[in-house]
Specification:
Blueprint: E1 22-29, H1 35-45, H2 51-63, H3 79-84, E2 91-96, E3 101-106, H4 114-121, E4 126-132, H5 139-150, E5 155-161, H6 170-186, E6 191-196, H7 220-226, E7 239-247, E8 257-262, E9 273-277, E10 281-290, E11 293-295, E12 303-308, E13 319-321, E14 330-339, E15 345-346, E16 350-355, E17 358-371, E18 378-379, E19 384-385, E20 390-401, E21 414-418, E22 425-431
Parallel strand pairs: 1-3, 1-4, 4-5, 5-6
Antiparallel strand pairs: 2-3, 7-8, 7-13, 8-12, 9-10, 9-13, 10-11, 10-12, 14-20, 14-22, 15-19, 16-17, 16-21, 17-18, 17-20, 21-22
C-alpha cells in the first residue's frame, strides 16, 4: 500500500494513457512558504485552468479584497482552509502538457498536519520542497526532506520561493541551495535540484525569468517535464493482498468465487502457480477478471479479481504470492517509524498494525534510535518518540505478517500503527531489512 489510513483524500485515478508519461509529485514546506500559490501559478501559466473555474477564482479573489487572482484558492478547497488561509488536507490536482501528465499532491506545511505530508509523499515520484528566501532552510524544511527520503522519493526539488522579496539576490539563493543540497545529500537522495522562483509573479515557474539572469537552469515546469523517471513498482516478486471475496450473483455464475484486490508486485497470469498466505497452500490461477472482462495478465497497480482452481480458506488479510518468492513470515519487525500521535510511543505500548489488508496486534519492545532532524545525529539513548519525531523501533506481533523491505516494495514494505481506543493512525512504519542503512 501507499501508506494506508493516513489523513487526506485518495488521489484521483488518471486518464487512460501510457503510465510512463505520468509524474506524481508532492509539494511540501513550512507554513506560508507559498505551496498553494506555486501550484496555482503552475496551473495558471500552463493554461491548465478551465475558463469557468478561472472566472470563479477571480470572483472569489475579489470577494476577499484581492486586486489580483489569489492562486492559492485553487487548491485550498476546504472552507476552513479558505477562512484561515492555510492548507489542512491533501489537495490533488491533475494537469497535462504535451510532454507529460501530472498529478500534484499539495500537502500542508503546519507541523500538526505532518501525517498529511506522509500521505502525499507515499505515492510520489518527486517532491517539491518550498523554501522561503527570507527564512532559509527551516526545521520543517528538514523534516519534510527527511520524510521524502524515508518514503523513497527518488527526486527532490528545492524551490527557493519569494525571490522578489530579496531583490532576486543570487547570493541568497546560492547559500540556501548549498545548505539544502548538502542536507538532502546526507539523506541519500539520488537526485536533488534547486530553483529560484517567485510563485506570486511567476518567475521560473513555467517560464524562465529575466529577473534572474544569473540562473542558467530550467524553470520548474521544464524540470518536471524532463526528469527521468524510474519505475518504483516491483515487477519481479508477485504480491496480491486480498481485500474481499466476490461470490456468485445473478449476473454471474452462482458458483463464481474470486479474490478481489490490487496487484502490488510482480505479474500474474492465468495458469500461474501461486501460494496462498498465511495457509501456505499452492494452487493455480484460473482467470483474472475485471468489470470490462478477463485479462491475460495483471501487474501493479491494477485492481482485479483473481479466480483460483481450488476453493481455499482465504479472505481479507490473505495474500497470493509466487512460489519462488514467498516472503518470510515476520513475528518481529525492525522498522523506521514517523510518529504521528499526540501521546509518545514508548516500550511496552500496544497498537494495531495494518500491513496491506492484514491487521494484527503489536507491542513495542524497544525504541532503538531517535533521529535529530537538525543534525541527523542518531540518539540510541532515546526511550520514546514524540509527535512528528522519526526513529527506529522494534515491534513484536501477535500474528505473522509477510512484508518486503520498503526499499524493495513501497506497498508491501509499509504499514501503519493504529491506536486501539481511538482508531486513529498514530505511526507510519517502513520495514527494514538486515544491512539497511539510514534512512533508506
Amino acid at each position: 500500500m501507499a501508506i494506508l489510513g493516513l489523513a487526506g483524500a485518495s488521489p484521483p485515478s488518471h486518464p487512460p494513457h501510457s503510465v510512463s508519461e505520468l509524474l506524481r509529485f508532492s509539494t511540501a514546506g513550512s507554513v506560508d512558504d507559498g505551496k498553494s500559490t506555486l501550484i496555482g501559478r503552475l496551473l495558471h501559466d500552463s493554461r491548465a485552468i478551465p475558463e469557468d473555474q478561472l472566472a470563479a477564482l477571480e470572483r472569489a479573489s475579489r470577494r476577499r479584497g484581492c486586486d489580483r487572482i489569489d492562486l492559492a484558492l485553487l487548491t485550498d478547497g476546504l472552507r476552513a482552509e479558505r477562512e484561515q488561509g492555510i492548507t489542512i488536507d491533501v489537495a490533488y490536482r491533475y494537469f497535462a502538457t504535451p510532454r507529460r501528465r501530472f498529478i500534484i499532491a499539495d500537502v500542508p506545511g503546519h507541523l500538526q498536519y505532518t501525517r498529511n505530508m506522509v500521505t502525499g509523499c507515499s505515492t510520489a515520484d518527486l517532491t517539491v520542497v518550498l523554501i522561503d528566501a527570507r527564512q532559509g532552510v527551516a526545521e520543517q524544511t528538514r523534516r519534510h526532506a527527511i520524510i521524502a527520503a524515508l518514503l523513497g522519493v527518488p527526486h527532490l526539488v528545492g524551490c527557493v520561493n519569494k525571490m522578489d522579496l530579496v531583490d532576486y539576490d543570487e547570493d541568497v539563493f546560492t547559500a540556501i541551495r548549498d545548505e539544502f543540497g548538502d542536507f538532502a545529500g546526507r539523506l541519500g537522495v539520488a537526485d536533488v535540484a534547486c530553483i529560484p522562483v517567485s510563485a506570486l509573479h511567476g518567475d521560473n515557474v513555467v517560464h524562465r525569468s529575466v529577473a534572474t539572469p544569473w540562473y542558467e537552469g530550467p524553470a520548474l515546469l521544464e524540470h518536471l517535464e524532463a526528469v527521468e523517471l524510474e519505475s518504483t513498482r516491483d515487477l519481479v516478486r508477485r504480491r496480491f493482498p486480498v481485500q474481499w471475496i466476490i461470490r456468485g450473483s445473478p449476473a454471474l455464475d452462482p458458483r463464481y468465487r474470486a479474490y478481489a484486490g490490487r496487484v502490488e508486485g510482480g505479474i500474474f497470469r492465468p495458469g500461474d502457480e501461486v501460494v496462498a498466505l498465511p495457509c501456505g497452500i499452492r494452487t493455480r490461477i484460473r482467470s483474472i477478471d475485471t468489470y470490462d472482462g478477463a485479462l491475460g495478465e495483471a501487474f501493479p497497480p491494477l485492481s482485479v479479481a483473481i479466480r483460483l482452481d481450488d476453493e481455499l480458506d482465504l479472505g481479507r488479510g490473505g495474500m497470493l504470492v509466487g512460489p519462488d518468492d514467498v516472503p518470510e513470515p515476520r513475528h518481529e519487525l525492525d522498522a523506521l517509524v514517523c510518529w504521528l500521535g499526540q501521546a509518545p510511543i514508548a516500550s511496552g505500548a500496544r497498537y494495531l498494525l495494518q500491513h496491506t489488508t492484514r491487521t494484527v496486534r503489536a507491542v513495542v519492545t524497544e525504541i532503538v534510535q531517535r533521529l535529530d532532524i537538525n543534525t541527523l545525529v542518531l540518539d540510541p539513548s532515546a526511550s520514546a518518540l514524540g509527535l512528528n519525531e522519526v526513529g527506529r523501533v522494534r515491534l513484536r506481533l501477535a500474528e505473522p505478517i509477510f512484508p518486503d523491505a520498503y526499499r524493495i516494495n513501497r506497498a508491501t514494505g509499509a504499514a501503519i500503527l493504529i491506536d486501539e481506543t481511538t482508531n486513529a493512525t498514530v505511526g507510519a512504519v517502513l520495514v527494514t531489512a538486515e544491512g539497511d542503512g539510514w534512512p533508506r
